[in-house]
Amino acid sequence: MNTLWRHRLAAPPLLPLLGAAVGAVGGGAYWAGAQIWPASVAVILSMLATALLSAWLDPAGARTPGAGAMIIVFALLIRFNVLMALSAANLPFPLPPNLALGLILIAGHASSSALGVSMKPASHLDLGIALAIGFAPAALIGMPGLIGLACAIGARIAFAAYARRRRLSIGAAELDRTRLMTELCFYLGTLAARSYI
Fold it and tell me: 145 to each of 2, 62, 69, 85, 194, how far by Cα in Å?
């Protein structure tokens, strides 16, 4: 969408229509999210969708200062709510109380770190060892861990495609974003598999 079109959408008579469209996207994101996750997670996903759409529709073209920080704040809010929901999780094998979330955290951090390594130049042997170590905790959790791992891998593939398209060099900031997003997607996938938990 070009800047002229964005300016026309921002004209005062059309702002209520634009607001209704943003609200519809937020409502749709909430409805879709609530089909998979608890309401608290769906609400934050809805808020993120409306914030991103509002920034994109801004005549400045989504170059609003602080947009990256906004995404990180939303990611942390989502992670907090997902982990709170997972704190009541039971895994397919008996564990002492409150230990399941600890194992899920180990699996989330290990898999996101392994996927971060996969973004760096590494030998096939080093990459294979990193992936085996990083994915093992998710496999030990069973079906929820494997679903979370599949979501994390999907996020890593999407971020790599985005980085290639934007011709981003993979530095420390991009690796941090990769780890943050893949870890978050791991937890979201694990929570989505709650029927297996």
Answer: 42, 35, 29, 15, 11
